[in-house]
Amino acid sequence: MDLLSVRKNVLGLICLVITAGILLAGLWPLDFWPENKVRWLQDENGVQFYGQALIFTQLPAPCSLHPCSVELSLQPTTEKSSHIGHIFSFLDDHGSETFFLGQWRSLLLLGKGIHGKKTYREIGIRDALKKGDKRFVTITSGVDGTNIYVDGLLLESSPRFQLFSMKEKLPGKILLGNSPTGGEYWTGNLLGLAIYDRVLTGEEVSQHFPQHFHDSKKSGEEGPVSFYLFDEHSGTLAHDSIGDHHLTIPSRFEVLQKTILVPPWEDFRFNRSYLMDILTNILGFMPFGFFISAYLWMRKPHSNFQLLLISVIIAGCMSVFIELVQVYLPTRSSQLIDVMMNMLGTAIGVSLFLKTRTSWSVSVSGKAARDLEF
């Protein structure tokens, strides 16, 4: 076997190893039915979200929530900065969030709409959700706007921010601990939840706070329309003490709203985690671009443009395959930006090969060397 054949075989093997590594990294963990990371608290009422997890209702909202109030007793266990952890959401009949209550670092956020779009709006309170601190959060919203209370105190008021308008359809499911796409999970303890179909007064909010749901179980006009004590301590249901809108706690994590190749303008986050993800996707495909172009050139001479085009197309097809499989992997997300950065990394790798190409034929003699010249 001549030197040229040996080089072809070695380059082919390197390309296979790199391809296998990319597929493994892109699809890991290859788990189509991952654990739903929710567990019951044993020493007090509540549930703990300790990773990618969710809890949701099977039935739509119990009544019209124009206006509405929501009370939550919660305790964050981390202060994540990589994404906004979604604590509580109402979903519309298409499975999209009507609004969400979330946490970013120690910031309490109330968001409405799709992040990144012009219609997205949010209000928040700094240092409201510190790691390990129990908080009693109340949100009231009506024609006069939205108020946010923490531990019975009014800390934020927005006359122009309304959770629901009269033109909107009634909300569908209640979702806890995550976004419907499954990528913005919250970590912490949820100790109680109450939903009202009216605006609670400031006096009512301050009265409810010290009770922490222990004495709030009431039915009728003045009480909540759905009420969750999380006092079961086991099982797959958190019962609604007022009605039949029970919360389901699945044993396996599932995504309520599957997304395919989410465009960059919808999921862009200017933070370290997002930028590191971009850098990883570029660097991960640079070796592939370098060695696949070297292999193609060794097999048959191509122009610079042909090498670049063929290599980028191969990388793009492989990247699209990974992203499509990720649609069915609940712990992964399918993003168009990943495909774009993978192709960019491949193009950079091809460019590096083209700059060093002349050294590859130094030891190839005779006819083989002449065949490789342009």
Explain what the structure shows.
The protein starts with a helix and ends with a helix. The protein folds into two domains: 3-31 and 262-371, no CATH class; 38-248, Sandwich (Jelly Rolls), CATH 2.60.120. It is an alpha+beta fold. 31% of the residues lie in helices and 22% in strands. The longest helix is centred in the C-terminal third of the chain and has 28 residues, at 272-299. The protein has seven helices and 16 strands. The chain has helices at residues 3-27, 202-211, 264-267, 272-299, 304-326, 336-356, 366-371; strands at 38-40, 47-49, 55-57, 68-76, 85-91, 97-104, 107-112, 121-125, 135-142, 145-150, 153-158, 174-176, 188-196, 226-228, 237-238, 247-248. The radius of gyration is 27 Å and the shape is elongated. The strands form two sheets. Strands 1, 2, 4, 9, 10, 11, 13 and 14 form an eight-stranded antiparallel β-sheet that branches. An eight-stranded antiparallel β-sheet has the order 8-7-6-5-12-3-16-15, with no helix packed on it. Strand 6 (97-104) and strand 7 form a beta hairpin.
Short description:
The model is unreliable at 362-374 (pLDDT under 50). The chain is 31% helix and 22% strand. The protein folds into 2 domains: 3-31 and 262-371, no CATH class; 38-248, Sandwich (Jelly Rolls).
Pick out its properties.
374 residues, alpha+beta, Jelly Rolls, 2 domains, eight-stranded antiparallel sheet, 7 helices, 31% helix, 22% strand, disordered C terminus
